[in-house]
Design goal:
It is a single chain. By secondary structure, the chain is α+β, with helices and mostly antiparallel strands. About 55% of the residues lie in helices and about 20% in strands. The chain contains 16 helices and 13 strands. The strands form 2 sheets. Strands 4-5-10-7-9-8 form a 6-stranded mixed beta barrel.
Length: about 400
Amino acid sequence: MKYFHLIWSSLWRKKTRAWLTLLSLICAFLLFGLLQALSVFFTAGADFVGASRLVVQSRVSFTDSLPIRLLPEIEAMPGVKAVSHDQWFGGVWGENEQLFVFANDPERLRTTYPEWKLTDAEWEAFKTTRTGAIVGRNVANAEGKGWKVGQKIPIKSNIFPKKDGSMAWEFDIVGIFDGIDESWQAQTNLVYINHAYFTEAAQFGSGFAGVFNVVLDDPDQANAVAQAIDAKFLNSPNETKTQSEKDFNKGFFAQIGDIGLIVSLILVAVFFTILILTGNTMAQAVRERIPELAVLKTLGFNNGTVTALVLIESLILCALGALVGMLLASFAITGLAAQAPQFFGTVRASGAVWLQAFLAMTALALAVGLPPALKAGRVKIVDALAGR
């Protein structure tokens, strides 16, 4: 492009203003990339491809517990290798620190989640200790805790009182578990308590399980097994919804509300602000250069060329912001997936997200660049040089 040097010089005529505008655009597209990738993740349909574990919950909601008597029925179904059950405890540590605490059967937990690393002695202690608990490495090492094996820890429940009406429980740490690899180590933010003690001591909740975790013989049969489980309990008092572990984890975040709508509203607010900011910057830049544009016309540049020069300047500015912002979003998404693969392992800044960013960038560039570009093209040489 023979006029590139002219356009580039005009863009950086006021370096501080240009850098601040560019940083605003980078932040906007960084947020756009992150939110759009998460929106695609949350709005995608159920995915059973490669699922080695399924989660069976109540069809109404995963907060609606299922009778634990369903466990042997699920376990006996073709294609099912093993089943365990999780009961959400609603744990609170200290004043108001929320903990991910689940009541589970130790033997079944060991079978269905071999990704958790504990010694045989620790597994046995969890099985035989009535008030036993195993704690994830990340929880135990968290600031302000420093939990050790053999320590007694008080944990309150915001759901289940004990039979005496107290919400305060005490558990003995019999093991601290880690993950089999880096991705599972990042997920050791859980605490498991012995389900037998929970059902014995809780004022209510005995005989129920929050969800069932189903290990499959063949991951390729995940969809078929899920449909068979749901069909078995269809039209019963305890209808089920069976999904892959990944899709179940989405459900925790979906409690917030309509993720797609929330993302859209945030992006509208962000881009409206950027539209005003960048539009004002471009308009001001053109006003400052009116005499220079008149000189260009005096040298033979026609109206269309002057309009194109200003519009391309806007496109370059928006393109730089979009490119850097989306690259930063891609790196951030990769880090997010690495830190919490169980939840965000499949979040990607896909081609669809990049295409949406390109369309957003083009629309933004036209919106902020076209009005000042048209104004620049209509500049009259005599009026501009006379300062009118």
